[in-house]
Design brief:
about 325 residues
């Protein structure tokens, strides 16, 4: 009896171990990998919250009020209060100023496709191991919206576009179309009813300055929206150029003014263009660019205490 019981227990242990090994193997075989092009169709606007075994979740920064938050991000980099700086970084999903600088560099360097008259209402950046995804949504007063999805840092953006075009169903264009300056090319156009909202959408896949991009245009009526109309209406600019400063306001700035006084006249800083000196760049509504160099007189001075050292307008 004891012998039979021992054999029975051994069998249970062997079966249990065998079952555990099978489970582990099954999980391992289904674990997502860093094959970008195989997983690209599963990328969505919002993080799914899934924690993978081998692939770390992306680092994500999202702005629901981009105009104000971008200015706050730039200003916080000059904050002398370390505790306040850490709290601000964490509120945006950052742990270091380097992560914040990386995000701002992406935003500043991207070729923004301005194809809808409206306000930028959402910016999100998801940083994976070796590439990133930048989303920019512009919303018009009538409720129409345009979402741009940029694939940042792909090793082979052409292959990504090829795969996306191949996946597109009911593609209405057979040949790619390009803007006059060749900076934007569209290789597929899909027109569908939106699965959630009452309107319809047009979705394009292509390139902007050699970066793979997906453009989704939602409207209550898309009858007049197509590849040619999009290319004819769009302009390409920097996101920092969406709030130009009137030249007459810039003329009110003089040497010795504090940043706080400058901000009250022309608004928050738009872009820091120097790694050595404190030089902020502003875009003027007449097409010119103004550079204001500030100086920090005391080590503990905060940004509001910085004073204007020089002004250059070109």
């Amino acid at each position: 009896m004891k012998k039979n019981l021992s054999i029975f227990l051994c069998l249970i242990i062997v079966i249990s171990l065998f079952g555990c090994n099978n489970t582990s193997a099954e999980v391992e075989s289904n674990t997502p990998t860093e094959e970008i092009l195989n997983n690209i169709s599963n990328v969505t606007e919002k993080s799914s919250g899934v924690i993978y075994d081998t692939v770390p979740p992306p680092k994500s920064i999202s702005l629901d009020s981009p105009k104000d938050e971008l200015s706050q991000m730039r200003e916080i980099l000059y904050c002398a209060d370390k505790e306040l700086l850490e709290k601000a970084l964490l509120s945006w999903g950052c742990y270091t100023t380097e992560e914040l600088l990386t995000f701002l560099d992406v935003v500043d360097s991207i070729s923004y496709i301005d194809a809808l008259d409206g306000d930028i209402t959402w910016i999100s950046y998801q940083k994976y191991v070796d590439y990133g995804i930048l989303y920019i949504t512009t919303t018009a007063e009538n409720g129409d919206w345009l979402r741009l999805t940029y694939m940042i840092g792909l090793e082979n953006p052409s292959y990504w576009v090829y795969e996306k075009v191949k996946q597109a169903t009911s593609n209405v264009i057979s040949n790619s179309v390009r803007s006059e300056d060749n900076r934007v090319s569209l290789h597929s156009e899909v027109r569908k009813k939106h699965p959630v909202y009452p309107g319809q959408y047009v979705e394009w896949v292509g390139f902007v300055d050699r970066i793979g991009v997906e453009i989704l245009y939602y409207a209550s009526n898309i009858s007049g929206i197509n590849s040619n109309s999009l290319l004819a209406s769009l302009t390409i600019s920097s996101l920092t150029q969406t709030t130009p400063v009137a030249p007459e306001l810039m003329e009110q700035i003089s040497e010795g003014m504090t940043y706080k006084e400058v901000k009250e006249i022309i608004g928050a800083l738009q872009k820091d263009i120097s790694s050595e000196n404190i030089v902020f760049e502003y875009y003027l509504s007449d097409g010119r660019t103004a550079q204001i160099e500030f100086q920090k007189l005391n080590e503990n001075d905060d940004l509001n205490d910085f004073t204007v050292k020089s002004i250059t307008i070109e």
